[in-house]
Amino acid sequence: MFYLTKEVLPFLKSGDSIINLSSITAFYGDPQLIDYVTTKCAIVGFTRALARNLALKNIRVNAIAPGFFWTPLQPACWVKEKIPSLGSDAAMARGAMPYELAPTFVFLASDDSSYVTGQVIHNNGGQVMG
Questions:
Q1: 99: helix, coil or strand?
Q2: Alpha-carbon gap, residue 130 to 122, rounded angstroms
Q3: CA nearest 63: which of 9, 15, 1?
Q4: In terms of DSSP bridges, do strands 120-121 and 17-21 run parallel, antiparallel, or are they unpaired?
Q5: Active site residues per annotation
Q6: How many distinct helices (H) and strands (E) make up the chain?
Q7: What 3-state DSSP class applies to 69?
Q8: CA–CA dist 43, 27 (Å, integer)
Q9: Rounded to two decimals, what is the model's pTM?
């Protein structure tokens, strides 16, 4: 992520937006996914530091930290018995569909978020609040 950002920076101009992808696990931890959690926490720190670095150039940097989303990958990653309950620990008691995440990316990429930088948007059905 660091090197990719470094390579694209010369091509970015005022008003552009960088959107990083973190995870809900960066905010609640998961004892079984320590390496994944560590990486997703690093993305949050990177997002905030880069946002401060690029703010005066009017380049916004934000992240999205989604909760459980139903993708074709999910059933392959979990034991069969756990699949029906995936996402049920969110306040909305369900996992989300990818189309429920897409508008968050569109918002952060658009001029509608022209005064939003250094933020992590939690699209997680209320699993983590605050």
A1: helix
A2: 9
A3: 1
A4: unpaired
A5: 36
A6: 5, 3
A7: strand
A8: 12
A9: 0.91
